[in-house]
Amino acid sequence: MSTPFRYTEPVPPRSAAGTVAEVYAQIAVDFGIPAPSTFVVLSSAPELLAPTWALMRESLIAGAGSRTGKELVALGVSLANKCPFCVDAHTVLLHATGDHALAERLARGEAPRDEAHARLLAWGKHTRVPGAALTPYPFPRAHAPAYLGTALTFHFINRIASALLTENLLPAGAQRFRAVRSLAGRSLARTVRRPARPGAALALLDHADPGEAPAWAGGTAVGLAYAALLRAALAGADLLDTDDQDLVEEVIHDWDGAHPPLALPGFPGRRERPGARLALLAALAPYRITREDVAAWRRPGDTDRCLVRLVAYGALLAVDRIESAISSQIIQEAL
Predict the structure, then answer these.
(1) If you average pLDDT over residues 86-96, what whole number do you get?
(2) pLDDT of residue 175
(3) What pLDDT was estimated at residue 332?
(4) How many CA atoms lie within 13 A of 330 on its CB side?
(5) Hey, is 150 helix, strand or coil?
(6) Is 209 in contact with 119 (CB distance < 8 Å)?
(7) Rounded CA separation 100/239 (Å)
(8) For residues 201 and 1, what is the distance between their CA atoms, to the nearest angstrom?
(9) Burial of 179 (0-12, 13-18, 19+ CB in 10 A)
(10) CA 80: distance to chain centroid?
(11) Which of 314, 293, 161 is nearest to 251 (CA)?
């Protein structure tokens, strides 16, 4: 039987317990899919699963603004990050919003007819470049926490999906067929169009202080979810020694949003520093992680949870590079 998971074997959702089961229950109600593989793949690390879901729910699902608009931003992010799994997912979700013609234009690689839609898609793509000018926003400023949160959510989820999942959203790549995309979207329409109460996912987070919420979140639940994910993901640094941490953080600090060339200049070899290599690939080119990269890193005692935590650490460093640039822009504009 084919599986969407690469390099890990998550516990089947029917066997979930504790926080994982609680997250799955909320996902089923508010996302409409009982156990999507983008979240199942994180289930070996509940401390990552819960805030990842919380950030997506509080921004994309329960946050202010048009769901179509936020799906376009998420799609733009996914295109910029070269994540076909997520590109297909957001195309299906545009069918769920009722924007069938828009979804199919984008599936064909065509630009939206509506100028406002085109601006949202382009803005999402532009967020991959740290420090890129993101204002004026193509949405009301009051909706910025939800739109910025959506972009950051999918900069993280794209990297997890590209690193640890196959490219097929549906078995055998069935999402490539228009009728299947439309039917899948229509099956989610009632859930996608139903309002969700903001803040409900925060109860799933660790009760410890999640850290300081970023100013751009404007006191919304999005900020607390982002802070919780940041703290949980950066804890994965303990899987690397200090020299490897310094190397990874230095490379990402200097990253300009570009996709690395084939030769991967600046990336350590898998034999010499396999952990640093995996973390950097997760951050900058997760679609280039290979079985050989994982095997070179994995030692006896390294569990699926360890791999998920290491990938999440690299992924979140890239996201935090983007988020820090956004926060700096907002501070400069306020001066």
Answers:
(1) 97
(2) 84
(3) 80
(4) 16
(5) helix
(6) no
(7) 45
(8) 33
(9) exposed
(10) 12
(11) 314
Report which residue type is found at 60: L
- CA dihedral (2, 4, 5, 10) in degrees, to 10, reads -90
How do residues 127-171 score in pLDDT, each as one tens digit?
Answer: 999 999 999 999 999 999 999 999 999 999 999 999 999 998 778
Kindly report the number of other CB atoms within 10 A of residue 119's CB atom: 18
Give the CA distances from residue 15 to residues 24, 95, 303, in Å, rounded to whole numbers and listed in that order. 11, 31, 18
The helix (H) or strand (E) run that includes residue 168 is: none
Quote the tokens at residue 210.
Answer: 């999640």
Question: To 5 degrees, how large is the angle CA 133–CA 137–CA 140?
Answer: 160
335 pLDDT tier (thresholds 50, 70, 90): low
Return the C-alpha torsion angle 308, 91, 322, 127, nearest 10.
160
Q: Catalytic: 306?
A: no
Q: How far apart are CA 123 and CA 182, in angstroms?
A: 25
**DSSP code at position 219:** T
What is the percentage of the chain residues whose pLDDT exceeds 70? Answer: 99
Coil vs helix vs strand at 17: coil
Closest CA to 306 of 211, 187, 164, 170: 164
Reference 222, options 157, 150, 126; nearest CA is 150
Per-residue model confidence (pLDDT) at position 210 = 75
Given 86, 228, 230, 283, the catalytic residue: 86
**Considering just the CA atoms, what is the radius of gyration of the chain in Å?**
19
Q: What would the pLDDT profile of 179-235 be if each residue is shown by its tens digit?
A: 999 999 999 999 999 999 999 999 999 876 778 899 999 999 999 999 999 999 999
Region 271-280: mean pLDDT is 97
Q: Which residues of 196-232 are buried (b: 16+ CB within 10 A; e: fewer)?
A: bebbbbbebbeeeebbebbebbbebbbbbbbbbbbbb
Measured distance CA(195)–CA(269) in Å, rounded: 48
